[in-house]
UniProtKB/TrEMBL annotation, chain A:
<dbReference type="InterPro" id="IPR000780">
    <property type="entry name" value="CheR_MeTrfase"/>
</dbReference>
<keyword id="KW-0808">Transferase</keyword>
<dbReference type="GO" id="GO:0008983">
    <property type="term" value="F:protein-glutamate O-methyltransferase activity"/>
</dbReference>
<dbReference type="InterPro" id="IPR036804">
    <property type="entry name" value="CheR_N_sf"/>
</dbReference>
<dbReference type="InterPro" id="IPR022642">
    <property type="entry name" value="CheR_C"/>
</dbReference>
<feature type="domain" description="CheR-type methyltransferase">
    <location>
        <begin position="1"/>
        <end position="271"/>
    </location>
</feature>
<dbReference type="InterPro" id="IPR050903">
    <property type="entry name" value="Bact_Chemotaxis_MeTrfase"/>
</dbReference>
<dbReference type="Pfam" id="PF01739">
    <property type="entry name" value="CheR"/>
</dbReference>
<keyword id="KW-0489">Methyltransferase</keyword>
Automatic annotation (TrEMBL), chain B:
<feature type="modified residue" description="4-aspartylphosphate">
    <location>
        <position position="52"/>
    </location>
</feature>
<protein>
    <submittedName>
        <fullName>Two-component system response regulator</fullName>
    </submittedName>
</protein>
<dbReference type="InterPro" id="IPR052048">
    <property type="entry name" value="ST_Response_Regulator"/>
</dbReference>
<dbReference type="InterPro" id="IPR011006">
    <property type="entry name" value="CheY-like_superfamily"/>
</dbReference>
<feature type="domain" description="Response regulatory">
    <location>
        <begin position="3"/>
        <end position="119"/>
    </location>
</feature>
<dbReference type="Pfam" id="PF00072">
    <property type="entry name" value="Response_reg"/>
</dbReference>
<dbReference type="GO" id="GO:0000160">
    <property type="term" value="P:phosphorelay signal transduction system"/>
</dbReference>
<dbReference type="InterPro" id="IPR001789">
    <property type="entry name" value="Sig_transdc_resp-reg_receiver"/>
</dbReference>
<keyword id="KW-0597">Phosphoprotein</keyword>
């Protein structure tokens, strides 16, 4: 692919979803976008880009941005963040919010729903402590197709075996052929919405807990900074942010600091890192 | 090194499972049916058992009930690994004392995920 075509795709992706592709990842463009080009009647990606340069086609641009995203997710991903949530963060919030009895959680890149549903199942286990509480889980993603899947709540046999304890499978899912459907109770505990992290999140309100896991890794530095600053603006002063295991706020924002090194949890008044931890 | 008893009447499945478990740093012992598995446990209690359901001589579920009644039989972490993938079988397995349940077809990723979940890894 000529560099002007590569540049066009790179700019489109950065602009639309924040996805950063370096030259050594061009094979990803080839494998993921050739099917899109073919579907729209072009023989090559270059032909598709040429056509787009002549005449903008919004639906195709959206499809291109979507095809390049990685949607991989699993239930209770990495286990520990969810244990921390249940054992440390949740009791703290219940204590701090005991007057309003309201707790708001945001999954900011929820993919097909495994992350918010994992949280909803955890809250269900704690139901005895939550009576009279207004618990809200807002789950968003840029991709309409994964959101549709998430709302449907139907998971393959492979998906329900990744991270989901079998006791929870039996308790919260019903079998439909080779698929498993999550119960209405858990499904209704989550509100799904489309939201692009490159835009202003303040319209979603304020949150006690934000999960924004395994999406910053795809962004360049400037985009990571912008997104983290924006998240800082909607996380309550005593709220927390969960990032993925290879993500951090260090060196990217002045607002959120690790609660403790290596935990993957960040808050407004955490401890600024020692020099050794700076990248 | 942790030990895992692989119980399956298919030699091919035992081979595949053995390869995966060796990669996860387990020592493995094999049994072709529930009776052999029970004898193996009486001789030496493993840390984990990867257990098929349908086998000649003694089925996986019968073996599991007998295992849990043995002295120290509550120690091994038992993970079913079977083509019986309906909710009734899964429930029966949990009631009999299974810790986890893998629905075939399985791969190394699923075994690894399940073993991590039950604290074996
Ligand atoms: C790898 S998944 C992570 C799913 C889940 N958080 C987890 O950790 O398992 C990344 C998700 O981020 C979404 N995404 C990518 N760019 C985004 C953006 N600019 N705004 C919102 N979501 C975005 C993708 O559509 C994809 O579903």
């Amino acid at each position: 692919m000529g560099s002007e075509y590569f540049d066009y795709i790179r700019d489109l992706l950065k602009d639309r979803s924040g996805l950063a592709v370096s030259l050594d990842k061009t094979y990803l463009i080839d494998t993921r976008l050739l099917p899109v080009a073919r579907k729209h009647g072009y023989d090559t990606i270059v032909d598709m880009v040429k056509a787009l340069k002549i005449r903008h086609n919004e639906a195709l641009v959206v499809e291109i941005a979507e095809a390049m995203n990685t949607h991989e997710s699993l239930f209770f991903r990495d286990v520990e963040p969810f244990e921390l949530f249940k054992n440390i963060i949740l009791p703290q919030v219940l204590q701090r919010r005991k007057d309003t009895r309201r707790m708001r959680i945001w999954c900011a890149a929820c993919s097909s729903g495994q992350e918010p549903y994992s949280l909803a199942m955890l809250l269900h286990e704690e139901a005895h402590r939550l009576s009279g509480w207004n618990m809200e889980i807002v789950a968003t993603d840029i991709s309409h197709s994964v959101l549709a899947r998430a709302k449907e709540g139907l998971f393959s046999q492979f998906e329900v075996q990744r991270g989901l304890p079998v006791q929870m499978l039996v308790k919260h899912f019903a079998q439909e052929g080779d698929y498993w459907r999550i119960s209405d109770k858990i499904r209704k505990a989550v509100t799904f919405k489309a939201f692009n992290l490159l835009t202003d999140p303040r319209g979603l309100g304020r949150f006690d807990v934000v999960f924004c896991r395994n999406v910053l890794i795809y962004f360049d530095l400037e985009t990571k900074r912008k997104v983290l600053d924006a998240l800082g603006g909607v996380i309550a002063p005593d709220g927390v942010l969960f990032l993925g295991s290879s993500e951090s706020t260090i060196g990217l924002t002045e607002q959120l600091w690790p609660v403790e090194a290596g935990l993957g949890v960040y808050k407004h008044t955490g401890s600024p890192p020692s020099l050794a931890e700076l990248p | 090194m942790k030990s895992c008893l692989i119980v399956d009447d298919s030699k091919v499945i035992r081979m595949v499972a053995k390869k995966i478990l060796h990669d996860l740093a387990f020592e493995t012992v094999e049994a072709a049916d529930g009776q052999q598995a029970l004898d193996a446990c009486k001789a030496n209690m493993p840390d984990a058992v990867l257990l098929d359901w349908n086998m000649p001589v003694m089925s996986g579920i019968e073996y599991l009930r007998e295992l849990r009644a043995l002295p120290n039989g509550n120690l091994p972490v038992v993970v079913f690994c079977t083509t019986e993938n309906d909710i009734e079988h899964i429930q029966e397995a949990i009631e009999a004392g299974a810790n986890e349940y893998i629905m075939k077809p399985f791969d190394s990723e699923i075994i690894q995920a399940k073993f991590t979940q039950v604290g074996l890894l």
